[in-house]
Amino acid sequence: MNKQQSRRQFCATAVATVFASTTFARASEQKYDPGASDTEIKLGQTVPHSGPGSLYGVLGRVGEAYFQMLNEQGGINGRKINFLTLDDAYSAPKCVEATRRLVEQEEVLALFGSLGTAPQTAVHKYLNAKGVPQLLLNTGASKWNDPKNYKWTMAGLPLYPTEGRILAHHVVNVKPDAKVGILYQNDDFGRDFLGPFKKVLSDAGGKAQVIMEQTYDLSDPTVDSQLINLSKSGADVFYNITTGKATSQSIRKVAELGWNPLQLLSAGSTGRSILSAAGFENAAGIVAIRYAKDAGVPRWQNDPDVMRFEALRAKYLPNVDRDNTIAYAGYGQAVTMAEILRRCGNDLTRDSVLRQAANLHGFHSPFFLDGVTYDYTPDDYTPMKTLYISIFNGKDWDISDSPVTE
To answer: What is the CATH number of domain 40-158+302-385?
Structure first.
């Protein structure tokens, strides 16, 4: 009897020891920073749900829908995603207020997909000082590629200088004696395209030159006067560095004026909702950089990635138009952020999130064209280096057969 009790006690002790050791090992593998736990991962974002940039508010709504779907399927590595998308109205002061709330009150693990060069510049130093990841930004400003000094910040769009240089080379090739008129947003966003574009024209040593520049502010009700000035300047190339409603207004106004320049458009403003507001017929002939697919067009209707987005939109966002490419872009970024978190496993520290994001080289977002992947490395935060020249034919984009890599 005593021997049996001894054996039972020994076995019980052994089992308890193994269980305790296993539990301890598992616990030791789980590392958390604010915003993460055994059951939840908290993410944040600021975008303009109101104001002049409200067209981009759908980025937040599609993020909410995607994470709701993931949560219904069990979350990421068994954890539910608590995603908070706050309105900054494309205003730097409001962005600061919203970002501080996300970091200091909500204690998010990371921010991703926030929009706008000026608003994100206002919180750039703050987030880096706090060591909070500021990932997949909806801005391609060159300043985001500075891993040495601002390692916590990474762009999610092609860098504007890269885009500007490629479009300038296109102008030199197809219209070597071009007279260029430029309309640009009067902030860091606009100037980031402007300088590199002009430098390529200058370095080409030909006759192509910028003969007029006009600016606009986001608060301007229209850009009509600027377009009238440009149309009278003698320019035969129009570089349109605008966003949102200003893009739609400017494309429509060019047509109304009967002006027929070669039109160049920044890639972030090529969404079908923007072109639709301008009138697809008015956008015919526009040249832009492409790196992504469109939703709601015949070319991609059987594409598996587009079909998955359409299923999400139809179930969770039926009031969003099926051809809303901005929403599709937001879906691609949400999928990418989810991939970063999956790769983190149980190491849900901010350092881990940054490390996985900085090593995302080769990952293909469902928003990207075939052959385009993220190119991040820990020493170079250039989001993607393979881009395509495309021309809008009035219904869809005719994309070049060969990509351009800078």
So the answer is: 3.40.50.2300
